[in-house]
Specification:
The chain is 40% helix and 15% strand. It is an alpha/beta fold. It folds into two domains: 4-203 and 407-422, Rossmann fold, CATH 3.40.50; 216-399, Rossmann fold, CATH 3.40.50. An eight-stranded mixed sheet has the order 3-4-2-1-5-6-7-8. The relative contact order is 0.12.
Length: 435
């Protein structure tokens, strides 16, 4: 009988390409290492459906099944309905049946959501699936992610309880690993609690199926892309300046920092700038990157020096296509973590505008922690100056960058092999895998 896994908190239908990257990176590794695995990915849809994704190794079939935090408790995909069904043997609930039949549950918490930083409702929704797995005695594997911060003692206790009951837990960088060890406390065992890398370093890159619009297509051609800046503006921060200050502790004005840096680029260089969204929720949604991009365009449209030098990638590409686009920029700066990982994993010189502790740790796994610009400690003028300095000094050795990105891609594959072996599964040999 083949291995049966459930994969939670990495739904591919949220509009957040970072979460989609976490989903398809893990599926890709499983397809390469354990082709016969049966995987169910919990998503925002209804019922159970069969899906097929095309990887470099060929097509891979998996199941998608609705499991959400909706307050409509009567719906079968409601966490509360699933939980009740678990207690009563399944009751024909598709998600409950998948959980009860699973050999293990993988959970990645969206990469960074095992924290109350985003508010109690999101924290409760993320942890509810983990607790359901533990309630029915399923091995819970916490895939490489960020742990914390925790503002309330209650959130810490919940995370602590989950971590200590987990069969295995991975942090995606050394800083977060220290938090993981603290959560594990006296239960810490090096074999159970591990430090790895973000799984998205193994994400495949695919050329867009829909042709890029002009002038982006011309700018990203081989002979001109060195003078192209890719910029990801986070709708989460741009669209809520009050929350940026109160929730995330930003000292600098994020909007003014973005606009100030771009104005300097247009005044003092001939570079073109491509705005690249990574959370594709529609304009009007509080997290929408396209909405933030439209706002940036509106702010700069009347400046004569921006004419013909500022363009936007439309929100029609998936996570692997966006990685392909980002990989063709001469320099990239992002606020969304996985937009930055798309650059780092492609050997593109990159900087990040951080709003939480996760960014510094992940950049340090690539040996470029000094490329993180932190508006929580810098004021607006300092952020602009730091971004300018990063752009000016971005021409480090491409060989070094590629070596680091390749090492992290191998590490991402290797850690999945170690997880499978921990579950007593004979995985296929991965490049660089340890025995």
């Amino acid at each position: 009988m083949s291995l049966r896994l459930c994969y939670s908190n990495a739904a591919p239908d949220t509009g957040n390409l970072g979460v989609s990257a976490l989903c398809y990176s893990v599926l890709g590794s499983l397809a390469r290492l354990c082709p016969g695995v049966e995987v169910t990915v919990f998503d925002e849809g209804r019922g159970s459906r069969v899906d097929v994704v095309e990887f470099d190794t060929g097509p891979f079939r998996f199941a998608r099944c609705g499991a959400t935090g909706t307050r409509r408790f009567y719906r079968r995909e409601s966490h509360w309905n699933i939980r009740l069904s678990n207690w009563l043997g399944g009751l024909g609930n598709p998600a409950s049946q998948r959980l009860l039949e699973a050999d293990a549950v993988l959970d990645i918490a969206g990469g960074d959501s095992l924290t109350d930083m985003y508010g109690p409702r999101r924290f409760q929704g993320v942890t509810r699936g983990m607790r359901m797995a533990l309630e029915i005695g399923k091995p819970l594997i916490l895939l490489p992610q960020t742990y914390g911060p925790y503002r309330s003692p209650g959130a810490w206790r919940i995370a602590e309880d989950i971590v200590r009951q987990a069969t295995m837990a991975w942090a995606r960088d050394a800083r977060s690993y220290e938090v993981l060890k603290e959560l594990a406390g006296p239960d810490f065992e090096p074999e159970r609690y591990r430090c790895g890398v973000d799984v998205a370093f193994a994400l495949e890159s695919h050329e867009p199926r829909i042709p890029l619009p002009e002038p982006v297509r011309t700018w990203l051609a081989e002979d001109s892309r060195s003078q192209v800046i890719g910029l990801n503006v986070s709708g989460l921060i741009w669209n809520d300046p009050t929350g940026a200050s109160t929730r995330y502790g930003l000292k600098a004005d994020y909007r003014a920092s973005i606009l100030g840096f771009l104005q300097r680029v247009f005044r003092e260089t001939q570079a073109g700038v491509v705005l690249i969204p990574h959370v594709l929720t529609p304009v009007g949604h509080y997290e929408s990157d396209p909405a933030a991009n439209h706002a940036v365009l509106a702010e700069l449209a009347d400046l004569p020096e921006t004419k013909g030098r500022l363009a936007v990638v439309p929100p029609v590409y998936d996570q692997s296509e966006m990685k392909w686009i980002i990989a063709r920029c001469g320099w990239f700066c992002g606020t969304r973590m996985h937009a930055c990982i798309a650059a780092l994993s492609s050997g593109v010189p990159a900087a990040a505008i951080a709003y939480s502790l996760k960014t510094q740790g992940v950049f340090e796994t690539c040996g470029c922690g000094n490329s993180v610009v932190d508006p929580r400690t810098l004021d607006t003028s300092e952020v602009i100056e730091s971004l300018w300095s990063q752009w000016q000094t971005a021409q480090t050795s491409s060989d070094t960058r590629m070596a680091r990105s390749s090492a992290n891609a191998l590490a991402a594959e290797r850690q999945m092999g170690e997880i499978l072996r921990f579950l007593a599964v004979d995985a296929l040999d991965a490049p660089g895998a340890t025995k």
